[in-house]
Amino acid sequence: MTEETMTLEVTRYRPGHDREPRTESFTVPYRKDWVVLDALNHIKDRIDGTLSYRWSCRMGVCGSCGMMVNGVPKLTCAAFLRDYRPGPIRVGPLANFPVIRDLVIALDDFMEKLRRVKPWIIRAVEKPVADGEYLQTPAQLDAYKQFSMCINCMLCYAACPVYGLEPAFVGPAAIALAYRYNLDSRDEGYRLREPVLAIALAYRYNLDSRDEGYRLREPVLSEAVGVWECTFVGECSVVCPKGVDPAAAIQRSKLAGATDWLLSMIMPWGGRR
Amino acid sequence: MTVPRVERPGLYYPKLPATWWLRNANYFRFMLRELSSVFIALFLVVFLVQLHRLPQGPGAYAAYLDTLRAPGWIIFHVVALAFALYHSVTWFNLTGGLAVPLGWTSISHARMLALAAQPLVKLYLFALIALPLYHWAHRFRFILEDLGLRGLRTPIALLSYGAAVLGTVATLWVLWQI
After folding, report:
1. Which run of H or E residues covers position A7?
2. What does the pLDDT read at residue B76?
3. Contact, A102 vs A52, CB < 8 A?
4. What residue spans define the domains of chain B?
């Protein structure tokens, strides 16, 4: 019996050689329990050792192996060949990102954005270790839990046409994570994350005669980068492999920002949270 | 405002083509949703012109309505109606008003809670729930009267409007609890 095979059309890009990416076809054995990543590993081990791509855990946790599979952002460790029968399967680097080589994209932009939204618990005053943990009720945990499932795989950025058209846009995962910390009952950093998320509010403080923070907010304001860039295409939430709903985080951030802005207009003496 | 990106040599920077929304069904539906607003705006302009014709007398008004009977305008209105319906469906999907109870989409408790806890949303919910109660009270009062209970006018009015007032208080109380 001849072995069943499948064809993978893989995007190749060699920096310094190619001006544009090109496609190369590989024929790999078809196995019912193989995922696209297994097929790529087969190519690298048996056919062409120069094929470059990122991967690590093979179990949908590390977020390294995100690629475009038939034009859809997928974790290749979770994309089974059997779901793409009879093929061919098109495998490309994550869309909207600069390509370093073959299927490897540049992460710098996302990493910088992630840092910018301060995705960690910020306290006005840290309490001493001796005073124990910051306690949280199950309801308080529920408030942000789904947003904390993000594995930084960047599939949502590859799915987001707004990010594709405007690379300065902070983007789905970073906003979802900022929102996750804003929702955390232990966190007090809402105002610090705000300028990145809600441009209207940054503007409101710039107009405040008591404020001297204009320069600090300027980079955020001069680039239209925050939640208001989002036009709610919603595809970020569709492609998320961990069930996070970044689109909801962004729309809710818009609502929170608009509410705060309105309250600050009605009650300039401090109607804000 | 597009910020020029500093491009590093050696990297390939993909460009998103203007036809990106043809790439998958969700993108296409998004574009339709956004486009629906154009038809709604166009309809509003047509309606505004109709209102503008009102003070110009019955002749001008009738002439305008006659214009709208042309096949082209009828097609426009049918298309605009279709887009308006689609627009409404996307709103329901967004708000969870119909979509959640009907199971078209699911919004988790945490998500719904966070949404309902917003002061602006509360204000909206208050208007959404409390005001139609008076609409109900008024109509219900006259339904009963039309059914021949005119002799009980005062108690019916008291009961109808009283129930609406109670509903208002209940709405305030429920929203307060969120």
Report:
1. strand A5-12
2. 95
3. yes
4. 25-177
- DSSP for residue A45: I
Contacts of A148 in chain B (CB under 8 A): none
- The pTM of this model reads 0.75
Q: Which domain CATH number covers A170?
A: 1.10.1060.10
The Cα–Cα gap between A169 and A187 comes to: 24
Tell me if A248 and B23 make a contact (CB, 8 A cut-off). Answer: no
Residue A39 lies in a domain: yes
Structure tokens at B53: 């014709």
Whether omega for the bond prior to residue A246 falls within 30 degrees of 0, making it cis, is no
Question: Is A72 contained in some domain?
Answer: yes
- Taking an 8 Å cut-off on Cβ atoms, the answer to whether B3 and A168 are in contact is yes
Is A249 in contact with A179 (CB distance < 8 Å)?
yes
pLDDT (average), residues A9-27: 95
Nearest-CA residue of chain B relative to A262?
B120
Q: Which residue on chain B is closest to A106 by alpha carbon?
A: B11
Residues ≥6 apart with Cβ < 8 Å to B17: none
Instruction: Map residue B62 onto helix, strand or coil.
Output: helix
Residue range B122-163, pLDDT digits in tens: 898 899 889 989 989 988 888 888 887 878 888 889 999 999
A272 part of a folded domain = no
Q: Is B108 on the interface with A (CB under 8 A)?
A: yes
B69 touches chain A (CB under 8 A): no
Say how far apart CA A222 and CA B2 lie, in whole Å: 10
| A52 and A115 co-located in one domain | no
Farthest CA pair distance, chain B: 89
For residue A64, the domain's CATH number is 3.10.20.30
Q: How many CB atoms lie within 10 A of CB A273?
A: 11
Q: What are phi and psi of A221, to 5 degrees?
A: -75, -40
pLDDT digits (tens, 9 = 90+) for A243-258: 999 988 888 888 777 7
